[in-house]
Design goal:
The chain contains 13 helices and 13 strands. By secondary structure, the chain is α/β, with parallel strands linked by helices. It is elongated, with a radius of gyration of 25 Å. It folds into two domains: about 90 residues, Outer Surface Protein A, domain 3; about 250 residues, Rossmann fold (3-Layer(aba) Sandwich). Helix 6 packs parallel to helix 7, helix 6 crosses helix 12 and helix 8 crosses helix 9. The strands form three sheets. The chain has an eight-stranded mixed beta sheet with strand order 8-7-6-9-10-11-12-13, sandwiched between helices. A three-stranded antiparallel beta sheet has the order 2-3-4, covered by helices on one side. The longest helix has 20 residues.
Length: about 400
């Protein structure tokens, strides 16, 4: 870590309390696994943290510490500051200027504050989000949770896609809509809700059913992230969106809910395995995968809606949290090339399967031939041709 800038104004991050346990011991923080405890019989750490209130630059802070503790050298005080910075207890108060229109995001930025050091701007992730463009495909159970959370997080531009109208049966889990909205286009209601939540977010709506990769391609092209919250027809919907995003070179975050679990995974074109790579991976590693897939489709099972409202919210919130990680990089995302599963019954989250990219085998993100893999013959509908056309 580089030496601390002498012009910065060190401050104990305001998200952490500072308190004494006894005359010799102090604590910073009050959350399990984040609380730090210091033996401090001479009071050096206590005083340094107390003086680090953002009102002093480094030179002034060192001078004030030496006035109280003449036995300390400049280097000793600087070493103390660097140690506190290494455990991420300090931020630079110069970044605390909020400016017009930013106070609404203070809670978001206080979250980002935990992850910064003295040399970092905690507002940087928020400013990044303001410049990002995201497509949300589907405004059903998951999408109706995801959309307002994206707007509240400060995403600059959102394109929301759906073709359906609000039905009474939607109201147990689709939070965008109320009884008065029954019969209205979901995209129309979304426009009203987002404008009420955050007038700074630019919202575009598209009334369209995604029946092919082509239907999604022109929507996601040129965006920073697509979120696939459509799951019908099962598996085919994800394959269509995957194909569109691979050819548009757009990262896609997929989410789907099951009976007692929810799942998400992310595809980054050229970096991670794509959805078709996942099909190939299962074909290679799970001996009964193709038989299972064939049996499922031959059963022609038409599942009823299974959506317990609290679980829908949990999955939607996890997807938005991952989207912010993908867009800003403020911490590492967890779902790139990996399936992450939320167990609604136990309350646990598991990163249970990673799969590689198969550039020599995959017909979508690589140079493989679709005909070489029987699994793809079981997917009806349109797929992307090698010449760039959609058929």
């Amino acid at each position: 870590m580089p030496r601390i800038d002498a012009n910065c104004r060190p401050r104990l991050k305001p998200i952490y309390p500072l308190y004494r346990l006894d005359d010799d011991t102090i604590r910073v923080g009050a959350q399990r696994q984040l609380t730090l405890e210091f033996r401090d019989p001479r009071g050096h750490v206590w005083e340094l943290l107390r003086l680090a209130d953002g009102s002093r630059d480094v030179v002034s802070l060192i001078q004030d510490m030496r006035c109280r503790f003449p036995e300390l050298s400049d280097d000793a005080v600087m070493d103390g500051l660097e140690r506190l910075d290494r455990v991420a207890l300090l931020d630079d108060a110069r970044f605390d200027t909020r400016g017009p229109g930013l106070s609404r995001y203070e809670g978001n930025v206080n979250h980002f504050l935990h992850f910064v050091n003295l040399s970092d701007d905690p507002w940087a992730p928020h400013r990044t989000l303001q410049g990002k463009k995201v497509a949300l495909l589907g405004l059903g159970g998951g999408g109706s949770v995801i959309l307002p959370l994206l707007a509240a997080s400060g995403i600059g531009c959102i394109t929301a896609v759906d073709y359906d109208r609000v039905e009474k049966s939607n109201l147990n889990r689709q939070w965008l809509y109320g009884e008065a909205d029954i019969g209205r286009l979901k995209t129309s209601v979304a426009e009203r809700i987002v404008s009420a939540i955050n007038s700074e977010t630019e919202l575009h709506t598209v009334n369209r059913r995604i029946d092919s990769a082509e239907d999604a391609y022109d929507i996601v092209q040129g965006l920073d992230l697509a979120i696939c919250a459509i799951d019908e027809p099962p598996f085919l919907a994800q394959r269509r969106v995957n194909s569109a995003c691979i050819h548009a070179d757009v990262t896609c975050l997929f989410g789907a809910s099951q009976v007692t679990r929810g799942r998400m995974f992310t595809v980054i074109p050229g970096l991670s395995g794509c959805f078709d790579c996942l099909n190939i991976h299962y074909t290679k590693t799970a001996p009964r995968f193709v038989d299972q897939f064939r049996g499922f489709h031959e059963a022609a099972f038409d599942p009823p809606t299974i959506a317990f409202p609290p679980d829908v919210v949990r999955l939607g919130a996890a997807i938005v949290a991952e989207a912010v990680r993908l867009l800003t990089g403020y911490i590492k995302p967890v779902s790139v090339g990996a399936q992450v599963e939320l167990d609604f019954l136990s309350g646990t989250t598991e990163r249970f399967l990673e799969w590689p990219r198969y550039p020599d085998d995959c017909p979508t993100c690589g140079n493989g031939a679709e005909a070489d893999w029987p699994i793809f013959a079981m997917y009806p509908g349109r797929t992307w041709r090698k010449d760039g056309d959609v058929s």
